[in-house]
Design brief:
The chain has 204 residues and is mainly alpha-helical. The strands form two sheets. The protein has a two-stranded antiparallel ribbon with strand order 1-2. The chain has a two-stranded parallel sheet with strand order 3-4. Helix 1 packs antiparallel against helix 3 and helix 5 runs parallel beside helix 7.
């Protein structure tokens, strides 16, 4: 990550943290009243092939039972609350990732941070992808998200979800992440963030 990109991330994260402080506090109160504790979902993700970090999100699902892990598919759909669906649709559940940006774990734009299990299963691929700092949004988030939601929602078991994700999602996302990597810069970042904001407003 260049110094220019890092400074841009820090300034923007601080500005957004100030602007969103009151709405986020109110959202947390609503979430607490309707869903109870815990408010946050904290999960291990990878920012480099051998560097994990704790990714923060607002909780949108009932707490996982024993042995539940991996990406979310149709097998986990019944765990998502109505408020959680709204948070996911508007991406408001990702507001806590401003903390990850300030810490330097993530950038605003980059590949979505993967689970350790997929980095270990596809080491050569993620050695390339994770040369870029993971991001809250990115080219793959813009162009693959709806496709991924559709194919994973049709999966009935964790095993099927994992197989479909590995076969159909990971290669597509990696191709777009590597395209971003080749053209990365503040102009590209601002274009991706603007496109993300427009999509969120349309969905909201």
């Amino acid at each position: 990550m260049t110094l220019r990109k890092r400074l841009f991330d820090i300034v923007l994260a601080l500005v957004l943290a100030v602007l969103l402080a009151v709405p986020f506090a109110l959202l947390c109160l609503v979430l607490l009243a309707l869903e109870g504790r815990p408010l946050f979902y904290v999960a291990e993700r990878m920012k480099a092939p051998h560097q994990p970090f704790a990714l923060w999100k607002l909780r949108t699902m009932r707490p996982a039972g024993p042995g539940e892990a991996g990406v979310s598919g149709g097998d986990k759909a019944n765990r998502i609350s109505p408020l959680g669906r709204l948070l996911r649709k508007t991406r408001a559940d990702e507001i806590p990732q401003l903390w990850n940006v300030l810490r330097g774990d993530m950038s605003f734009v980059g590949p979505r941070p993967p689970l350790r299990q997929y980095v270990e299963r596809f080491p050569e691929l993620y050695a390339q992808v994770l040369r870029s700092r993971p991001g809250i949004t990115g080219l793959a988030s813009l162009h693959i998200h709806r496709f991924e939601e559709r194919i994973l929602s049709a999966c009935a078991t964790p095993e099927e979800t994992d197989a479909v994700y590995c076969r159909r999602s990971i290669p597509r996302k990696a191709r777009l992440d590597l395209i971003y990597q080749r053209h990365a810069g503040l102009r590209m970042d601002m274009a991706v963030m603007a496109a993300t904001a427009c999509r969120v407003l349309r969905r909201g």
